[in-house]
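note to self — DONT lose this again. spent like an hour looking for the file last time. sequence + predicted structure for the chain T wanted, 363 res
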Amino acid sequence: MKVFKVLLFSILVFVSIAALSYVSYLRLIEAPLEIGEDFIFDVESGESMNGVIARMTSKGVIDKPWLAKIYIRHKGLARDLKAGEFTIKKSASLADVFEILTSNKQIKYRLTIVEGSTFSEARAVVASSEKLVIALEGKSDKDVLAILQGETISSNDSSALISEKQSLRFPHPEGSLYPDTYFYHKGDSDLSILKRAHQRLIKVLTEEWQNKSPKLPLQSSYEALILASIVEKETGKPSERGEIAGVFTRRLEQGMRLQTDPTVIYGLGSRYKGNITRKHLRELTPYNTYRINGLPPTPIALVGREAIHAAVNPLAGKSLYFVAKGDGSHQFSETITQHNNAVRKYQLKRRSDYRSSHQGNEN
């Protein structure tokens, strides 16, 4: 009986000590650290939890690295560490710190690819954005498109940049990105942003093409993208997208040339200095829709869903011409006589920032 009492007493003592120890452990890991002020902690890609604990100890954030290691093992957090920048609050406890570092609460940055910009301009925006890893430096637009489409390119390090092949193929980089605002965190790459923009474009284009109006004079979703890019560049007032698309659609149906200045400008490239001359309009390029029939060979800009939707769901009507009125809107006309009258009325007041001009100057 005496042995039993001793054993029972020993067990009670052990349990009490264990309970007190656990309570002390909880108090320690939940107690605010003596940080002083909020700060940003950067976890490098591939860094280990022990490495993070060592760096935090050297910075004075953690004064009991042994306790941190016990907590990590207790919670099984070693494999949950995330890369990126994290804001550590001055009131944070040890538990708070590792909850943050194993979450997806990295500091986020943002960049915006603007509708109507070009593929090259979008690449420049992405490449100049802070905190992004640059993986595509020195690669041409053509090479970047090949990478986005999962093709092998002639580069020593191309194998690291190849993605899964896709079904919808783009013969040219222009138009192959979706303009939008993209959020990212430190450690993301320019390639990761462009991949997201490319896949987003494919998704939106596919959805809109599947819900297109019947009997369009377009043979593929890529032709719809080309037309959408022209609509995008000609639209100063968003509510007119459908009507502008209707003008171009009827011109295509009737075998009329599109005669749209933005295509001429795109075809001139760096030679365009702000003004279109008669010489430019007479010059035969693949993009000069005053000289070629039908659509140009590729899009001329990056386009959003609204322009794509307008291109595949053009507004019904009879207008075949339009001219900028000077306030972002256009005057639409059914006949060349009406159009010429509108040109005389509004071109006298035309400002240098007008986006559309010469539709209807028949050859």
